[in-house]
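Exercise 7b. Backbone tokens:
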């Protein structure tokens, strides 16, 4: 049995990965990284959904006290085309540091559940960060549980967000420029 710390972006995305890791006889603890989620009301809504779900499945989760959106935006500013890589790195780096401090056997992320995320890049960054900090990154392709996770979250009446989390992904999701007519 391994002690695994999993970065969690939201409740619905945690359903399948946590179940899968527990089915492998791992002891799982979550970490909710919130600094990239915009607006703050969205961050709180996702956190509350995760809190309810985690309580229902007896999952301990680390929740940061602060909301450091400014630092996140400073990391991304003028590098928007690389924003996902920067964001992946920051979330995985922070999770690895917590895993090391908590003497976990490894760490992973619910990012690996989404069919919209770049798995090769997440794996590469996770393995690099893990090596740097001396905590193994656990790669699992959780996408095979995509439909199960969606179905379960709907049955549970969970809030399901419509974008990854950052202000840029919110814009990509909702802003559809109109075509200028000549």
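Sequence design result:
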């Amino acid at each position: 049995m391994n002690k695994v710390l999993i970065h969690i972006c939201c409740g619905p995305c945690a359903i399948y990965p946590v179940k899968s890791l527990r089915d492998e006889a791992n002891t799982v603890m979550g970490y909710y990284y919130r600094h990239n989620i915009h607006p703050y009301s969205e961050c709180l809504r996702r956190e509350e959904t995760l809190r309810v779900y985690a309580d229902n499945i007896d999952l301990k989760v680390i929740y940061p006290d602060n909301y450091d959106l400014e630092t996140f935006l400073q990391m991304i500013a003028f590098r928007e085309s690389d924003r996902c890589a920067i964001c992946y790195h920051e979330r995985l780096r922070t999770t690895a540091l917590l895993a090391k401090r908590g003497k976990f056997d490894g760490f992973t992320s619910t990012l690996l559940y989404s069919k919209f995320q770049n798995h090769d890049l997440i794996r590469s960054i996770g393995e690099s960060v893990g090596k740097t900090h001396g905590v193994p990154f656990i790669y699992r392709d959780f996408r095979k549980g995509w439909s199960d996770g969606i179905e379960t979250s709907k049955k549970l009446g969970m809030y399901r967000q419509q974008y990854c989390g950052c202000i840029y992904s919110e814009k990509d999701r909702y802003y559809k420029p109109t075509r200028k007519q000549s």
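Instructor comment: The CA atoms of residues 33 and 106 lie 17 Å apart. DSSP finds seven helices and four strands in the chain.
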